[in-house]
Design goal:
Length: about 425
């Protein structure tokens, strides 16, 4: 495994080489301190530009590049606002399209209010907003999902500068969990109303979302969603507090040359149609699944294992987007970036929520608050069962799980057991 996610320092992003030129272009408009936190946030925005395309996941199911969700988390004043400028740059054509749709809606409302007889009033035009306003209610979200499906199966994209805005979109905080899971899984989640004034329909939810939050808001928002699948479906990108250096970070200028280059990449996304299998990407995800199982066994952490499955899925979708942007070819640099996305997502989750994910958050140890820990690294080359048991207790884990963990380690050939001495020895890699 390339990255140690038990440390407070974020996994270092690999050098962006061949095949990641679009990502480098977008980062050229952000201050250097925001490069790593912004990279995971870019893919839901870019993915909203792909429609009528399906990709085969390693489990042989076909996926669309919708349902992508990411949450940028950092302290107030950490420059999270730079992301909204990049979103607007990527979605310039969305804004132009939505203005035309809004003009149709305003004209329909004008005619509707001037006509006296209901029989003469025209029906509401079929419209679909691709980049709806942040203050969108749940009925409006559903109505727009119906329009997006009717008019070509487009993905609607939302950028919510405050995580609490998702409550209004989902119909209240009690409905957030169901709605976000349905969006991620591309499910139908419509409504049946008893009156003609209500919104009735059952469309496939094609939506991508990006959200921003300070740490305390993120913890409060997700505290009841940690174990039902919602938390794992959301990609997190956390920017820890940095030193006070007294320098104002510089952003890009968004000039014509930048937009010209960006439009070339967006055209590739818009033009991608059909069904595809990216064998190199799928091989990487299969290998990373093995790494995640190894990491979970070394840390004896079921929660880590659970959230890693969707971290892999989300990073795989990002890999599909990179493949399209690079003229449908795969490179080593793309491989490295997708691998980093998996570890960065899990590291961010553990930095923000590790203490809340414990069985007893009130008494959890400082060691576990830092995130998953490779317990084998904390043991000598030759150790006894009692030593592992003591380490488990120090980390807030149960004494009863010691024997089972030793069996897993022996099976995976991390260690060997000597019946003569009753000691376990690490296997040299």
């Amino acid at each position: 495994m390339k990255y140690d996610i038990s440390k407070s320092m974020a996994p270092k992003m690999p050098t962006l080489g061949k095949g990641t030129e679009c990502i480098k272009l977008l980062l050229s408009q952000a201050s250097k301190d925001m490069h790593e936190p912004l990279v995971p946030m870019l893919f839901p925005v870019l993915g909203a530009h792909v429609s009528a395309s399906k990709f085969q996941y390693p489990d042989n199911t076909w996926k669309e590049l919708c349902g992508m969700m990411a949450n940028l988390v950092g302290d107030s004043g950490c420059n999270k606002g730079q992301f909204s400028n990049i979103v607007e740059a990527i979605n310039r054509n969305f804004r132009d399209h939505d203005k035309e749709e809004m003009d149709k809606l305003v004209e329909w409302q004008r005619i509707r209010h001037t006509k006296g007889d209901n029989k003469d009033k025209p029906d509401r035009p079929e419209i679909a907003f691709w980049f709806p306003p942040t203050d969108t209610t749940r009925p409006a979200f559903l109505q727009n999902a119906i329009g997006c499906e009717t008019l070509g199966g487009r993905t609607q994209f939302f950028n919510l500068p405050e995580v609490e805005m998702a409550d209004g979109l989902c119909g209240g905080h009690k409905q957030v969990s169901h709605m976000l899971r349905n969006i991620y899984d591309r499910q139908r989640a419509g409504a049946l109303r008893a009156t003609a004034d209500g919104v009735t329909g059952n469309p496939i939810l094609r939506a991508n979302l990006t959200l921003s939050a300070v740490p305390i808001s993120a913890r409060n928002f997700y505290k009841c969603e940690l174990f039902n699948g919602t938390f794992g479906r959301m990609v997190f990108s956390y920017k820890p507090r940095t030193n006070r250096d007294g320098r104002i970070p510089r952003q890009g200028k968004y000039d014509e040359e930048f937009y010209k280059k960006l439009d070339e990449y967006l055209e590739r996304l818009d033009a991608c149609k059909g069904k595809f299998i990216i064998h190199s990407l799928n091989k990487l995800i299969d290998n990373l699944a093995q790494d995640m199982a190894t990491l979970a066994d070394l840390a004896d952490d079921d929660i880590l294992w659970d959230i890693s499955k969707r971290a892999l899925h989300s990073a795989w979708k990002a890999g599909c987007i990179l493949w399209i942007l690079n003229n449908q070819t795969w490179t080593k640099s793309m491989n490295e970036l997708v691998e980093w996305l998996v570890y960065h997502d899990i590291w961010s989750k553990m930095q923000l929520f590790a203490d809340m994910l414990g069985k007893n958050a009130d008494t959890i140890s400082e060691a576990q608050k830092r995130g998953p820990r490779n317990m084998l690294d904390s043991l000598p080359d030759s150790f006894s069962e009692a030593q592992l048991e003591a380490l488990r207790l120090e980390l807030g884990k149960s004494k009863e799980g010691t024997n089972g963990q030793l069996r897993k380690w022996v099976f995976r050939k991390f260690i060997t057991y000597s019946a003569q001495t009753g000691m376990y020895c690490k296997v040299k890699s």
